[in-house]
Design brief:
two-stranded antiparallel sheet, 9-stranded mixed β-sheet, 227 residues, alpha+beta
Length: 227
């Protein structure tokens, strides 16, 4: 591996080769009108381990298959079983949200996936995009068979940099259940810090669940990671 930089009491992981991929391989066409982008093409982002691309209706079977009980219960009000129809509805809503500038949902393609050409292994999203205040929420999930391979860590790094350097956002938030230690580590490795907790009633689980709010600001990237 290339030289790594560890800062903020070893919470942040950053590989300079990932940084170069981010800079060289973001493909996105937009024009700015009153500081709001007008999309003409869905972004495609290439990393070392993953490619991030637009969701297709052909991804529906994989989404349904990968959405296990363990994953659904770590997400906010996602049903289980997760049917192909559920997946198709999500894909179609993702396309509408992109056109209306509300959200950008990426399919995660794992490059080191035997026998797979372009099949997704998870999804990562910029949601609730607020162009006026330059903020958005980050969400993601990875299929259980692909845990522990660095996929989430790199995908988050790619999307954070894309959000700051291309979309022009200044702050990104992520919410994670307190028991989801692996996801917490992913966020911390990418420089996100805990900013509070919320306790909300989940309609799917029919109980209150505690979520931790993580935040990263563009100035942190500029000051600490030297993009």
């Amino acid at each position: 591996m290339g030289k790594r930089c560890r800062i903020n009491q070893k919470k942040v992981y950053f590989d300079k080769r990932v940084q170069q991929y981010i800079i060289d391989n973001i493909i996105f066409f937009c024009s700015l009108t009153d500081d709001r982008p007008t999309h003409t093409c869905f972004p495609r982002i290439n990393g070392l381990l993953v490619n991030l691309r637009e969701l297709s209706i052909y991804d529906a079977m994989d989404i349904s298959r990968l959405m296990t009980y363990n994953i659904s219960r770590s997400l906010w009000e996602v049903p289980y079983p997760y049917t192909v129809e559920n997946a198709l509805n999500f894909i179609n809503s993702s396309h509408r949200d992109f056109k209306s500038l509300k959200a950008i949902n990426f399919a995660i393609h794992y490059k080191i996936n035997p026998g797979s050409v372009n099949r997704l292994v998870g999804i990562i999203s910029l949601k609730n995009i607020d162009y006026d205040n330059k903020k958005a929420n980050l969400g993601y999930w990875i299929g259980e068979d692909y845990w522990g391979k660095g996929i989430a860590t790199e995908s988050v790094a790619l999307v954070i940099n894309y959000a700051f350097s291309v979309v022009g956002l200044e702050e990104i938030c992520a919410y994670v259940y307190s028991e989801n230690k692996a996801s917490i580590r992913v966020l911390e490795k990418n420089g996100m810090t805990k900013k509070g907790e919320v306790n909300e009633h989940n309609q799917m689980s029919r109980r209150y669940q505690n979520s931790i709010k993580f935040v990263i600001q563009r100035r942190y990237i500029t000051d600490k990671l030297k993009f």
